[in-house]
Design brief:
The chain is of the alpha+beta class. The protein has helices at residues 16-38, 42-64, 106-110, 149-161, and strands spanning 6-11, 67-72, 76-82, 85-92, 98-103, 114-117, 121-125, 130-137, 140-146.
Amino acid sequence: MANQIYKETQTYRGTWVMYFILLIELPTLVLLLVFFIQAEDKTEMGIALSVVGGTLTLILLFIFNLKLETRIDQIGVSFKFSPFVRTWRKYPREKIQSISVISYSPITDFGGWGLKGNSTTKAYSILGDKGLFLDIGEKKKIMIGTMKAKELEEYLSSWKEE
């Protein structure tokens, strides 16, 4: 396994979340456009259409740009969660006390998906209910979501042996 690297990138692009947001936003914009066409005072309705349309576009762009990247190599575990964690957070192999792939309940264990946590445990997840659980010591634990649990377990079994 020498010099092998595990990489995973997760986004909301092409997932049910993206389509759900589009199913809400598009009818809203069409409805506002119909109101704008029928309105007598086009300036007020134009302002409302611009504000709501701009807000919905910003929300869609924000969710479209969320990305969780994970990298595990001989040196250690690294991840970043754009746009919240823009630089790679690196945890050297020597500092990791335990590492495993877990099943979790996003709502009950961490309060949902995204960037969650408290003073001792941080969770970074996009979708799913599987994650890489790291115990860094000093009462610090990190959970990084994964959509490739089997592949990650296979990689970690040989990674731990080295």
